[in-house]
Amino acid sequence: MTMSPTHPGGASRPVRGAQPAPLAGWTEITSDLLEDHRMALSSQALKRFYDGQVPEWRHALAPHDQIPRRHVVAGALGLLRAPVGQSMILLVASDGEGKSTALRQTAVDLVGERHRVLYRETGANLDIEAVMALPSTTSNWVLASDSADEIADDLEEAVNRVQAAGRRDIQWLLAAGYDDWRARFRQGGRSIEPAWASVLDLWPGVGATARMLALTPQEAATVIGAWGAADCLGALVDTAADARGEALIEAYHGRSGLSATTFLDASLGLRYGPDGLKAHMTGLLPHLGDGDHRFENGRSVKEAFFYAAAADVAGDGGMDLYVLADLLGLDRTHRFQILDRLGQEGLASGSAGVLRIRHHDLARGAIGLTEDAGFGVDLEQIYQDLVRGTGETGTDMKGLAAGGAIMNCGPTLAAKLGELGIPEARAAQVARTAADESARVLPDLLMFALSRALTYRQTDERDEALAILRSALGDVTARGDWGAMGRRYLHDLSVSECDAGHVMESILLVGLSISDVERLGHVSLTEAKLAFDGLGRACADMDRAKMGPTFQRLLSACSHLGQKVTPKWDEPTRLNFHRYAVLADELGATQCWSDQAAVTVVADAVAAALPGVQDADLAELWRRLLPDADRPPFAHLVKTVGLDVR
Predict the structure, then answer these.
(1) CB within 8 A of 34, min separation 6: which ones?
(2) Contacts of 528 (CB under 8 A, 6+ apart)
(3) If we measure between CA atoms, which residue out of 281, 264, 274, 214 comes closest to residue 238?
């Protein structure tokens, strides 16, 4: 199947029969256009919709007994049919809640009722001057946009301009993913979203959409009836008919143990049962690789899905469509074809150039099947490609909409794959390969060397983890992110040295990690906590017979300072500091009762460790970082912790 290079796909594909609209990139939804899309939906088509297929106009036109209209549609219509001024329907919710379907159903019901509905296609801008130039007529203009986060940057000005002009004939019908919408209005960790309700009539709003989407018993019964009519009750057929609606409500609101968070999660969990989604994927995956599921260059939809599923398992930030297009060898202008094809199969949706799997268990089920030789999938190669592509495309484009979780997936990947039934040794190898690739493709960043070393350490390759960190010593301060990652590097290297039994080296490195090193920022409370715990651990590992008074007192100093920087909820670390105090007492060490004394003891101990360091490279590191000091200065540490040191 040859696809148009301008085909944007997904929920916003160009509409058949569309006429030029007053806004570039927006389609006017007319009665004639809708008739072109009206068609009878087979049971199979309805099943695909309920399995998560991205909604299309044919779904919005379906009768109520096939695809019910939720009460959120009635609420939206109530405001848009009788506006007293500029109004905005704003449906903000997680993917899979039904907001896109509700938006299209609302738009369909407005057509022909003295409303002119303009629907934004994927990638189209919000041209404010064109909005203001819309002719004033007896009809109301309804500007409808799914993935409205894509026009969020211009929306406030457009709303204010419409209001200032006294235009009562321009209304807004918007839907967006919760995370995407909030991200557009985040600055410095706080929300800067405009107070829409102070300018126009807003319904229901960011905080109220979830309540409006909550299922009532009547709605649940209607949905169950639609599933039954489409012959897609699945596992729910074994539940008594009069209990099915209640089961859906409980699953949707998380009271049945299914861990459902969205309407799609709840419905798939009920219809497929605990193991049914994996069985569903077993049947679907071969179909995604056949001749009808190929892109114009011959690559398959199955390949696209496995890359996206691997990204979903690695982290929940989604996958950048530019990366996926590059991995599949498609022209980047064709990237929305991927979203379209996966959306048609009910596997993915997207916004702002980021593709997300519709249901996490679909991704988990598919990745869990990769060890089955019949699927012809090499999981290690998938993750190597995924990391390489993310790094290379991100470098080429100087940033991506999503990708951080993928590039740093190594340390947690083995555990995640193990949960999916991947054998432990295989999961560890895949994780190490992913971490190797991130460090290879972005060698100038210390962050990925640290991620690689941590991956090896957590998969019981501790000697190799130490070798990785040691190999960075020569140019570590020249790495592009030394200022941000230097303290963590020194700490992580200290941990690996301690694992290897190199106690003095570990103490020296911990001391450096909290010292006043040029180009390193202030010491955080977490860094201070980890440092004091690391110093205590190194002392506890020493041969008691060879431990002198300096290191005995260091145990007491670590306990005193560590408890000051460790939150009460971190009981395991607080217990460590208690153990260090007990050990110091058993050894007869003089207790540190003041901040001044404790800081002095730490500085003395770190300086005392330097002569015992056997590795010349580490001794040289001290001279590079603290060229004029024979003791570590701790001004940053004292300021961070608020120590009483005079």
Answers:
(1) 57, 61, 108, 111
(2) 514, 561, 565, 637, 640, 641
(3) 274
What is the Cα–Cα distance from 363 to 131, expressed in whole angstroms?
Answer: 41
Q: Are strands 348-351 and 354-357 parallel, antiparallel or unpaired?
A: antiparallel
- Amino acid in position 167: R
- Quick check: 130 and 123 in contact, CB under 8 A? no
| Token couple for 1 | 């199947």
| Whether the Cβ atoms of residue 532 and residue 577 lie closer than 8 Å to each other | yes
Task: With a cut of 70, list the residues of the chain below it in pLDDT.
Answer: 1-20, 205-207, 255-260, 373-374, 401, 646
Token pair belonging to 212: 């409006």
352: left (phi over 0), alpha (psi -120 to 50) or beta: left
CA angle 319, 321, 322 (to 5 degrees): 120
CATH code assigned to 10-37+69-213: 3.40.50
Look-up of token digits 């779904």: 59
CB 492 within 8 A of CB 450: yes
Task: Give the up-direction half-sphere exposure of residue 542: CA atoms within 13 A in the CB hemisphere.
Answer: 28
Identify whether the C-beta of residue 175 lies closer than 8 Å to the C-beta of residue 91: yes
Contact 263, 214 (CB under 8 A): no
Q: In sequence order, what DSSP letters do the residues of 523-567 get, joined into one string?
A: PPHHHHHHHHHHHHHHHHTS-GGG--HHHHHHHHHHHHHHHHHS-
Cα–Cα distance list, 346 to 11, 48, 52, 223, 261 (Å): 11, 6, 4, 18, 18
The closest of 262, 147, 268, 157 to 215, measured between CA atoms, is 262
Largest Cα–Cα distance of the chain, in whole Å? 94
Task: Quote the CA–CA distance of 527 and 489 in Å, as a whole number.
Answer: 11
Can you say how many angstroms the Cα of residue 216 is from the centroid of all Cα atoms in its chain? 31
463-511 tens-digit pLDDT? 999 999 999 999 999 999 999 999 999 999 999 999 999 999 999 999 9
- Give the helix ranges, DSSP H, for 289-334: 301-314, 321-327
Rounded Cα distance between 384 and 432, Å, is 10
Q: What is the number of alpha carbons within 13 Å of residue 642 lying toward its C-beta? A: 3
Summarised one tens digit per residue, pLDDT across range 69-119 is 999 999 999 999 988 889 999 999 888 899 999 999 999 999 988 899 999
In angstroms, rounded to a whole number, what is the distance separating the alpha carbons of residues 227 and 522? 59
In the prediction, which pLDDT does 16 show? 56
- d(Cα 78, Cα 333) in Å, to the nearest integer? 40
> Is the omega angle on the peptide bond into residue 204 within 30 degrees of 0, that is, cis?
yes
DSSP category for residue 372: S
CA–CA distance, 158 with 163 (Å, rounded to integer): 9
Structure confidence at residue 435 (pLDDT): 98
Contacts of 312 (CB under 8 A, 6+ apart): 318, 319, 356, 357, 360, 363, 364
Question: Any idea where the domains of the chain sit in the sequence?
Answer: 10-37+69-213, 289-480, 496-646
Question: What amino acid is encoded at 191 in this protein?
Answer: S
Q: How far is CA 110 from CA 73, 119, 139, 444, in A?
A: 11, 12, 11, 56
